[in-house]
Design brief:
This protein is mainly alpha-helical and about 300 residues long. The protein has helices at about 5-25, 55-60, 80-85, 90-95, 100-105, 120-135, 135-140, 145-160, 165-180, 190-205, 230-260, 270-275, 280-305, and strands at about 65-70, 70-75. The longest helix has 30 residues, at about 230-260.
């Protein structure tokens, strides 16, 4: 779905950014970590691989920076660097970059990963729900049996078909987090929710990639008509928005229907919905649950695989 950026577009955009910066006489920014020397105007855009980005970053050291189309990115490539900056200096570093394509056009602005800042009301509301659900050992212990059941199923599947280990890992992590979050039991083969999640995470990786869309550098492009040359990203955004909405609503609707029928398995989502909630509270619960599931399924899977 990603929009291909032609060399002509890049050069024109880079020239514009450079001239604007010159005309406005922007102040010199604070010193940044070292990084590769880039080209004039476009910076390091074509020096970082889009397929094995992590290998390029690893070669730059624990802390480095790159420049793409006038934007600076700081890369943390060790647990020590991450802890020193994102944990010990979290009050200064906890904001997220605003990506117009992912946040505004696709709709990730209401998903926790793009909820900006400790001073944001929505951020505090999400954090409050997270603590209520998983803030203590007692609250997480309620789901130990689900994890044990999922682990046993995973081991049985590995014994049965060891040649598809990666598929078993993805299925196991997804099934455990689906049941914890929504009380949903995954089907053995080609589960619809698992497939939906994989498609959504693949889509997120594309729309949130630095430099993938010109609209992230020039947000005003989002207001041009779809027929205008180079506006193919608007069609991409519509398709991605529909996929994100489906990932958000379908699991939540499953919980609501199970609760109405009196057959809901206790889960994070059903716990928050108990006793009735306002439409605003239900929307927050729905998006918080999706944040837990999407982030958890992808992160745990990657950690187990060792990627």
């Amino acid at each position: 779905m990603g929009q291909a950026i032609s060399l002509v577009n890049v050069c024109l955009l880079g020239t514009g950014v450079y001239l604007i910066q010159r005309l406005l006489g922007s102040r010199r920014s604070s010193p940044l970590p070292p990084g590769p020397i880039g080209w004039p105007l476009i910076g390091n855009l074509f020096q970082i691989s889009t397929e094995k980005t992590w290998e390029d970053f690893a070669a730059l050291g624990d802390i480095s920076s790159i420049r793409m189309l006038g934007m600076r990115y700081v890369i943390l490539n060790s647990s020590k660097a991450v802890s020193a900056i994102l944990e010990k200096q979290s009050s200064k570093s906890s904001d997220r970059p605003h990506l117009t394509m992912a946040a505004d056009l696709v709709g990730f602005s209401k998903v926790l990963i793009f909820v900006n800042g400790n001073n944001s009301d929505r951020f505090r509301q999400n954090r409050k729900l997270f603590y209520r659900l998983m803030g203590t050992r007692d609250s997480t212990a309620a789901f130990n049996s689900i994890q044990e059941e999922g682990t046993r199923r995973f081991l049985r599947n590995v014994l049965r078909k060891p040649e598809v280990l990666v598929n078993h890992i993805r299925s196991a992590t997804g099934s455990i987090i689906l049941k914890v979050t929504y009380g949903y039991t995954v089907q053995e083969e080609k589960d619809t929710f698992i497939k939906l999640t994989e498609k959504t995470m693949a889509m997120f990786s594309r729309v949130a990639a630095p430099g993938a869309y010109l609209v992230d550098v020039i947000p005003a492009l989002q207001y041009l008509p779809e027929w205008f040359p180079g506006m193919g990203f608007l069609q991409d955004a519509k398709k991605c928005h529909h996929l994100l909405a489906e990932s958000n609503v379908r699991p939540h609707q499953y919980v609501v229907e199970q609760m109405a029928a009196g057959t809901a398995i206790p889960s994070l989502s059903s716990t928050l919905l108990e006793g009735g909630v306002s439409p605003e509270e239900e929307d927050l619960i729905m998006r918080t649950s999706m944040s837990i599931y999407l982030a958890g399924a992808d992160t745990v899977s990657l950690l187990i695989q060792g990627n």
